[in-house]
């Protein structure tokens, strides 16, 4: 039983937890800046980036795909800014136009290219493939201390772990400019807290996080994790640090609960199947948001304001 | 050569010297060829109708709004090197007051220059912020979430944040817009006490009836500079009529622009 857990569940569970928590950490700032759609946009444009990198390099190596997706993310950001400035439309409209157009381009590229023999499919990109992260060397608990066995962990795990660490360092180091720029960009510019640079760096961190998580957990989970835990946390408190702590708790709980429910839930009802873990985690985070809306201590303010608008 | 040097010197000592500033969004200029030297130690108002470019002028001075042409000097230097000597109070409506933060934390933002990005706030930082809150009469609200404040209280918190910056030049964008009478009184008291300390203040102001009472210098602006100088010299019916393009009626004008009117009318 324990070796079963180590082989089949340890890596996917850790990848889900780390991805969820790093997305949720950045999500706090996206929600406060009313930029929640950025996570959505970047997850979508990763597809054309991955296809383009495959067409150019002819491989599906993770590094090439990451670079392709990263370039696509930056192109999209430039496009969003250009549409905003030239078309004089608000930023959410610009984002909506940019990412749907580029995503559609990716689908066309996929169909027109000779990628049919290769395993890039849209479904995979949406749902991710958490369940495939099997640790063949995880035969018993001693494997956790065996460097040879640890080296055989699925490469997605160290990848999301490094990115998670990077995100945490970014938030700690850039804390003050991030907070001031989120609250009052004009003041931030006047004290030379570099709001524009902070803005761009935040979006680049979002892109890196989304792309690292994307391959393992799929874009649905990435989008949900950028928004749901942070939005739920906002309903729990009126202070920023407690909000971030809540968002981490919610992200962790969604990952664990969602993974367990997807794997064992159907069995409890006598069905011999399992559900998509990423889909279930995203659903759990949505349910947490629903409960936060209904019972969160700060919900009255938010609802009263919505009614007032 | 001599007069040129003299005027150059005047520009150097000025807290804010703007020369030939033009800003444009699209086809129409928002601010056109404006010169403006704010005298040191003055309490200067910028007055003009809606869309006259008042806020844009301030933002350009702070390097936030992109300018087509013109030169901006803060104490004779480019803005970048002088940012620490300057405090900016944006319009209250420009930020999201639903932001999850407290009054004290907002005032602590004014200490940005003195702290590392990741540094934790210490007792002396908090004491300093509390002093500034006391000065605007908001010390009892330090732990409140900012969304729970009235408009006037929010404005006073913004002023406290500017006080924490200990700037030589403070730039305020409509600090009296939509505030209660008590707040207006509290703010002008603080501004006047800053002036007594030798600080310079520049303030976008929309209430013509209080210009004479509150300010010593005024810039009349309507995209172009109409007039600038001591209030007694330039705040005249003629200049106002020109600034507002004939939209003020004569009775209004007489009441506002006559030096003794504010006392005789009340």
TrEMBL record, chain A:
SUPFAM superfamilies: ABC transporter involved in vitamin B12 uptake, BtuC
TM annotation in the entry: 6-30, 37-56, 92-110, 160-183, 195-214, 249-269, 275-296
Localization terms from the record: Cell membrane
One example of a Gene Ontology biological process annotation: transmembrane transport
Listed GO CC annotations: ATP-binding cassette (ABC) transporter complex
Cited InterPro entries: ABC_BtuC-like, ABC_TroCD
UniProt KW Disulfide bond keyword: no
Topology with respect to the bilayer: Multi-pass membrane protein
Keyword terms of this UniProt record: Cell membrane, Membrane, Transmembrane, Transmembrane helix, Transport
Family the UniProt entry places it in: Belongs to the ABC-3 integral membrane protein family.
Protein name: Manganese/zinc/iron transport system permease protein
Automatic annotation (TrEMBL), chain B:
Xref: SUPFAM superfamilies: P-loop containing nucleoside triphosphate hydrolases
PROSITE patterns found in the cross-reference section: ABC_TRANSPORTER_1, ABC_TRANSPORTER_2
Signal peptide: none
Pfam families per UniProt: ABC_tran (PF00005)
Residues covered by the ABC transporter domain: 16-248
SMART domains in the cross-refs: AAA
InterPro entries the record matches: AAA+_ATPase, ABC_transporter-like_ATP-bd, ABC_transporter-like_CS, Metal_Ion_Import_ABC, P-loop_NTPase
GO MF term list: ATP binding; ATP hydrolysis activity
Keywords from the UniProt entry: ATP-binding, Nucleotide-binding, Transport
The keyword Ribosomal protein belongs to this UniProt entry's keyword annotation: no
Family according to the record: Belongs to the ABC transporter superfamily.
Name the UniProt record assigns to this protein: Manganese/zinc/iron transport system ATP-binding protein
Organism name: Aidingimonas halophila
């Amino acid at each position: 039983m324990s070796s079963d857990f180590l082989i089949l569940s340890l890596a996917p569970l850790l990848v889900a937890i780390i991805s969820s928590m790093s997305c949720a950490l950045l999500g706090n700032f996206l929600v406060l800046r009313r930029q929640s759609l950025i996570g959505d946009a970047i997850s979508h444009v990763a597809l054309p980036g991955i296809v383009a990198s495959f067409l150019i390099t002819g491989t599906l190596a993770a590094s090439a795909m990451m670079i392709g997706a990263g370039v696509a993310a930056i192109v999209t950001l430039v496009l969003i800014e250009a549409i905003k400035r030239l078309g004089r439309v608000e930023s959410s409209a610009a984002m909506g136009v940019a990412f749907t157009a580029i995503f559609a381009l990716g689908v066309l590229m996929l169909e027109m290219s000779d990628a049919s023999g290769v395993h890039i499919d849209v479904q995979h990109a949406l749902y991710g493939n958490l369940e495939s992260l099997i640790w063949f060397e995880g035969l018993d608990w001693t494997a956790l201390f065996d460097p040879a066995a640890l080296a055989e962990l699925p490469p997605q795990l160290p990848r999301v772990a490094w990115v998670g660490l990077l995100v945490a360092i970014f938030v700690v180091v850039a804390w003050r400019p991030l907070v001031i720029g989120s609250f009052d960009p004009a003041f931030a510019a006047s004290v030379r807290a570099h709001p524009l640079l902070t803005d761009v760096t935040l979006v680049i961190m979002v892109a890196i996080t989304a792309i690292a998580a994307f391959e393992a957990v799929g874009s649905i989970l990435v989008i949900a994790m950028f928004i749901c835990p942070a939005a739920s946390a906002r309903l729990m408190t009126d202070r920023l640090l407690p909000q971030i702590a809540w968002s981490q708790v919610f992200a962790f709980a969604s990952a664990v609960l969602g993974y367990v429910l997807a794997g064992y839930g159907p069995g409890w009802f006598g069905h011999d199947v399992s559900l998509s873990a990423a889909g279930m985690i995203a659903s759990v985070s949505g349910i947490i948001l629903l409960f936060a809306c209904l019972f969160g201590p700060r919900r009255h303010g938010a609802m009263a304001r919505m009614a007032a608008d | 050569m001599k007069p040129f040097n003299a005027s150059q010197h005047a520009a150097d000592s000025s807290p804010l010297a703007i020369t030939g500033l033009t800003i444009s969004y699209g086809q129409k200029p928002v601010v056109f060829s404006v010169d403006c030297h704010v005298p040191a130690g003055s309490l200067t108002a910028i007055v003009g109708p809606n869309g006259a470019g008042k806020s844009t002028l301030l933002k350009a001075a702070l390097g936030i709004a992109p300018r087509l042409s013109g030169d901006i000097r803060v104490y004779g230097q480019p803005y970048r090197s002088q940012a620490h000597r300057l405090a900016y109070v944006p319009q209250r409506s420009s930020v999201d007051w639903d932001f999850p933060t407290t009054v004290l934390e907002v005032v602590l933002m004014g200490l940005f220059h003195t702290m590392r990005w990741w540094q934790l706030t210490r007792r002396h930082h908090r004491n300093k912020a509390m002093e500034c809150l006391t000065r605007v009469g908001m010390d009892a609200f330090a732990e409140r979430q900012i969304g729970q404040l009235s408009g006037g209280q929010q404005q006073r918190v913004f002023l406290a944040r500017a006080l924490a910056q200990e700037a030589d030049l403070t730039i305020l964008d409509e600090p009296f817009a939509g505030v209660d009478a008590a707040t207006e009184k509290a703010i002008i008291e603080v501004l006047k006490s800053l002036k007594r300390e030798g600080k310079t203040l520049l303030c976008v102001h929309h209430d013509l009836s209080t210009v004479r009472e509150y300010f010593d210098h005024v810039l009349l602006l309507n995209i172009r500079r109409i007039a600038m100088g001591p209030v007694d010299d330039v705040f005249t019916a003629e200049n106002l009529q020109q600034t507002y393009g004939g939209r003020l009626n004569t009775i209004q004008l007489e009441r506002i622009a006559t030096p003794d009117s504010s006392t005789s009318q009340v």
